[in-house]
Design goal:
By secondary structure, the chain is of the alpha+beta class. The protein has one domain. The protein is built from 2 helices and 7 strands. It has a 7-stranded antiparallel sheet. A hairpin with a 2-residue loop joins strand 3 and strand 4. The longest helix has 12 residues. The radius of gyration is 14 Å and the shape is globular. The model has no long low-confidence stretch (mean pLDDT 95).
Length: 113
């Protein structure tokens, strides 16, 4: 969890990193972050680890709210080969592996440069 925050800080891609919620207990780890990207887009992170269960959503959008990409593991796309892991690009839902925030930072970096 703190590694996520450090990765965001070290990337040099974000003008602000707001920790909306943070729970760091023995059986529950939860973080919710809003990070503003240098181009004005916004990257939202929501990650929960509790008793062996993991839920995540990484949502990157333009400043006008239009989706750029979102990765999550909500189990509602059973026809996706990588179920429950998937990504949304505009109106498409595609297979995705269990992506990390570090990987998404590189995707954002490549998109910007």
């Amino acid at each position: 969890m703190f590694g996520i925050i450090q990765s965001l800080k070290n990337s040099g891609l974000f003008t602000s990193i707001d920790i909306i919620e943070l729970i760091d207990e023995e059986t529950v780890k939860f973080v919710k972050i809003e990070a503003k990207v240098i181009d004005g887009s916004i990257f939202y992170i929501s990650e929960l680890n509790s008793l062996g269960k993991e839920k995540y959503s990484y949502h990157w959008q333009k400043k006008d709210g239009k989706l750029i990409m979102r990765w999550d593991n909500k189990p509602h796309w059973k026809n996706i080969a990588t179920f429950p892991h998937h990504k949304h690009i505009e109106s498409s839902t595609l297979p995705s592996h269990r992506i990390t925030v570090a990987e998404i930072i590189e995707i954002i970096r490549n998109h910007l440069y």
